Every structure is written in structure tokens, then in C-alpha cells.
Amino acid sequence: MDIKRLFDAIDFQLNKFGNKPDVLAAKINGEWKGSSAIQIQDTANKLSAALLQLGIGGNDYTAEGADKIAIISNNRPEWVITDIAVQQTGAILIPLYPTTNPLEVEFILNDCQAKYIFVSDAEMYNKIKTLQPNILSLKNIYSFDKIEGCNHYTELINAATETSLQKVEEIKKGVPVSHLATIIYTSGTTGTPKGVMLSHSNIYTCIMYSKQSFPFEDRPQEKALSFLPLNHIFEKVITYIYLYSGISIYYAESLDTIGENIREVKPFGFSCVPRLLEKVYEKIMAKGAELTGIKRKLFYWAVSLGEKYDNNISGGLWYDFQLKIANKIIFKKWREALGGSVEFIVTGGAACPVHLLRIFNAASVAVYEGYGPTENSPVISVNRKGVNGNKFGTVGPPIDNIEVKLAEDGEIIVRGTTVMEGYYKRPDLTAETIINGWLHTGDIGTWIDNKFLKIIDRKKELFKTSGGKYVAPQPIESKCKESNFIEQILLIGDNKKFVGALIVPSFNELQKWYKTNGLTYTTNEVAIANAQ
Questions:
Q1: Burial of 314 by CB count in 10 Å (0-12 exposed, 13-18 middle, 19+ buried)?
Q2: 37-53 and 77-89 are packed helices; what angle lies between their axes, rounded to 10 degrees?
Q3: DSSP for 60-129, written as a single string
Q4: Cα gap 6→9, rounded to integer Å
Q5: For site-directed labelling of 286, which of 7, 204, 347, 459 has its Cα 20 to 30 A away?
Q6: What is the pTM of this model?
Q7: In what order do the strands lie in the sheet with 248-251?
Q8: Angle at Cα 491 formed by Cα 486 and Cα 494, nearest 5°?
Q9: 408 Cβ partners below 8 Å, 6+ apart?
Q10: What is the DSSP string of 237-269?
Q11: How far apart are CA 335 and CA 348, in angstroms?
């Protein structure tokens, strides 16, 4: 079948993989419950039909002419179903982070003139209800949870008529691939939200280029766990990669239950930000520190081996033999903590500390770092499976079928079908960002081995000391964060004689240090003032 729009994914699922019972799944009342391909297709079509009955549609299929439907929700099957349903009408989805502050929510909903919004729960409903008098375009709020005083989204589904359902099929055929699938508002470093306009073609080509580059094979027997916000284009793209690969998607209950959910679902892969890997590592190291005797020695022996691991250079027969033993007696437990079935973890959004990449990959938990801004739908490059496809400290080779080069000042620029259509109602910003077809990312990079892209820093974050020396803070901050004693760090030194740092220490690690050294820990303030 001819696949070009995002919403074609469910029809593709049915044609290629049949009616899988758990295409999307969530834990409800303590039990994992799946939605089949037919259930998703039926619900999405009915929701599309109901939206058409409300007068929602693509109209003239222009950015400003098409209707806008917003969503503010945690990750759940209803999010994806709503996304598909909105797309099928020709309307444009406007996703918002549940943590977005009220002033930004109000600005975004007014800027896009949203007509309806879907919310996840009572907290999100109350947030929107309070703002509703200030958003004149907003006609109604629908919720996924049952909330007193709020229309439940099943009211829309149950209101769909046969005539409207037939109309859905007609409209689906006419939605152009060049039409916008979503507008994603991102603050970036400017503070004022900018609407990134992404078409079906933008996102679909990014999905397919990423799928073949990584690669993602068809794995209908496998499950993936999802917990990065779906309103971020990275998680949305990987969601559709899973759908087009036949991989079932299980949604974590919350960020607090990720560990428990991983052990229950036993996913073969997931995506995350580096901070999650840092937290996993910190917990493992904390447990290791509690060991005694030979167990403690073996634990730190295995960690020491992991820190020396290089996937592209053999450590020699003796090193390889030791690592094999470490994987059987120590790292096996690490894998079990991640469900025991993980074949890959894709990470992005920030630089991943190299020592974590070394240790996790040494433990046979393959971590692949990727990169890309929302404006490129988003993937520009990703480390990948296979021989010589993954180099620690880089974000991998560019994905297939796009052009990537470095400008004279080292800025990463990219050209291809993945580049956004522009910023919504901001032609001035669009002209500054896309020049002669090239998207200027604002990131400084360099090539490693003429193949792998390495991010140096944000162009705007480079600063110059009073002595005229340019400093890229990110590499220094990343290196410092390898210390267990540093939670967060920010380098400062613009127009100063010297470079300094603001550091948030890990007080848990400080307490352990005090205990190990036979000192009494009183308060955090006293601890950080201790010159030792």
C-alpha cells in the first residue's frame, strides 16, 4: 500500500502484521491492557467522524486555514489515537507538555487559535479551565480520565454517525503529504514559544530514513517501553517507527514507576534522555558500595573493566576474557534490572557522558546516542547497530538521504525533506533559520573520522573571557559530571578574567564520603564548607 501520511500507520499495521492485540498498551488498575490494531483504527475513525461533525477539518489545508486541536496529556494510548484522529480530518495537532506553565499554555492556545483541547486528568483540566476565559477560540475541553464537570472523550466517539464515518474515508484520501501534521511549540533559548510547523512529509521521511539507518527491523513479537513525552517530536517519531515495524508500545505509568514497569514489560528497547541513564548508574553504584568482601571487589573490578571498554578497538584476549566473566557474574544483574531483554537504548536531548556509554555497552546493554532539533523532525544523526556504526562521544553518522555539513564557523547545517516548513506566523524567524534551503541548527560540531558527528556546544553558549579566549562549556561540564559528587554544573566566565563554575553537589555521595572517612555529617551547608 502507498504510505505517505502518518495516520496510514494503522492501516499498514493491519495489512502487514494482522490484528495484533497489543499495538498500544497501558497499565489500568494494576493490569496491563492492550489495544488491538482494529480497536485503534475503529476508535480513531469514530473520533475523526465526531470532530468532522463539530465542523473541524483541514479547510484550505494551509497552516492558518486548517483547524487546530490541542492536547495536554501524559503518555497513553489515547494520545496516539487522538493524534491519528486529528490528522485524518486534515486538522493540525498542537501538543503541549503537561508541565508547561499557564502563561505559555495561554500564549500557545491563543497563537494557534485552538478550537478544542484534550486533557489527560483533573490536574490538566483545572489548568485549562482556569485559562479558558482568556482563550476565545477554545470551544470545549475533553478528558481521557472521567472527571466531574468535563466532557469525556468517549462522548465524541459514541456520537459518530455512519454518514460521518464514510466522510472520514473520503477526507483521508485527500489529505496532502505536504499538509501540516503538527505544530510543536518550543521555547529554545529565546523564551517566547515558537511554533515549529512539521508536515506529514517532514515527519514521515524522518521516520523512514531513521528506520533504515539505525536500522529498525520488523519485530512484531517485541515490546518497547515509552515514557519520554509524546509531545516531543523525538518520541513521536520513534512511536511511528515502532508502529511501522510492528513493535508493541507499552506506556510507563509515570516517571517514578519506570524501573518497575521495565521489569514487568521486559522491553527489547526504549528511548530516554542521558539523565535517566545517570540515575540508573547512580543506583547501581550505590548498591555496589553497600557490598562487602569479595562481592565488593568483584563489583568494582567489573566497573573498572567497563570504564575501559571501546566497542571499536579490541582490548586484547585477556581483557575480552575478563569482560566475558564480568558479564556472567556482575553485569547480568544490571541487565536483569532493565528487564533482561533490552537490545538497545536510544538516547538524545543532551550529551551522554562517555563513561556511561562505555560501561553500559560493556555490560551488553547497547546505548546509541543520536541528535537532532525539532526543526528537523528531528533526527540529523544517530549511532547505529552493526560494525563500526557506534562511536562513543559522538552522535553518529547522519541518517540516510539528508545533507549535513559544517558552516565556516563550525555550525551544523542540514538540508533535506526533513527540514521544517517554517515557524508558525513568524516568517522573520524562518528566514533567519533556513537560508537557501539549509537549516541552521545553532549547534557547533566537528567530524570524527570523516564520518561521525560530534557536538561541541550550542553556538550561543560559547563565551569569551576578558583575555579573548573562547570557551565551549559543554565538554567541560560533561567531563565534570562524570564525578559522582557532582549533580549539576554550570560554567561561567563571559568577559571575566577566569572561568568559574556553579556546582550542585550530590549530597547522597557526600554523606557516603563522610561515613567512609569516619566523619559526622550534620548539614548540607556544613558539608560543602568542609575543605577536605
A1: exposed
A2: 50
A3: T-STTTS-EEEEE--S-HHHHHHHHHHHHHT-EEEEE-TT--HHHHHHHHHHHT-SEEEESSHHHHHHHH
A4: 6
A5: 347
A6: 0.90
A7: 31-35, 24-28, 248-251, 223-226, 269-272, 344-347, 367-371, 381-382
A8: 170
A9: none
A10: HHHHHHHHHT-EEEE-S-GGGHHHHHHHH--SE
A11: 21
Residue 377 falls in which region: left (phi positive, over 0), alpha (psi -120 to 50) or beta: left
Where does CATH 3.40.50.12780 sit in the chain? Answer: 8-175
Nearest to 110 by CA among 60, 56, 68, 55: 68
Contact 64, 199 (CB under 8 A): no
The neighbour count for residue 499, using CB atoms within 10 Å, is: 15
Contact 356, 277 (CB under 8 A): yes
CATH code for the structural domain at 8-175: 3.40.50.12780
| 461 SS3 class | helix
Cα 220-224-230 angle, rounded to 5 deg: 120
Question: Concatenated DSSP letters for 434-460?
Answer: EETTEEEEEEEEEEETTTEEEEEEEGG
DSSP, residue by residue, 363-377? TT--EEEEE--GGGS
Amino acid sitting at position 440: H
Is it true that the peptide bond before 378 is cis, omega within 30 degrees of 0?
yes
Prior bond of 398 cis (ω within 30°): no
CA distance 69 to 89: 11
Q: Take residue 378 and report the three cell numbers written for it.
A: 528531528
Each of the 532 residues of the chain gets a pLDDT tens digit; together they read 677 899 999 999 999 999 999 999 999 999 999 999 999 999 999 999 999 999 999 999 999 999 999 999 999 999 999 999 999 999 999 999 999 999 999 999 999 999 999 999 999 999 999 999 999 999 999 999 999 999 999 999 999 999 999 999 999 999 999 999 999 999 755 568 999 999 999 999 999 999 999 999 999 999 999 999 999 999 999 999 999 999 999 999 999 999 999 999 999 999 999 999 999 999 999 999 999 999 999 999 999 999 999 999 999 999 999 999 999 999 999 999 999 999 999 999 989 999 999 999 999 999 999 999 999 999 999 999 988 999 999 999 999 999 999 999 999 999 999 999 999 999 999 999 999 999 999 999 999 999 999 999 888 777 767 666 768 887 888 788 888 888 889 888 877 878 999 999 988 888 888 888 888 888 888 888 887 7
C-alpha distances (whole Å) from 400 to each of 173, 297, 349, 441, 501 are 28, 45, 20, 18, 39
Separation between Cα atoms, residue 280 and residue 115, nearest integer Å? 42
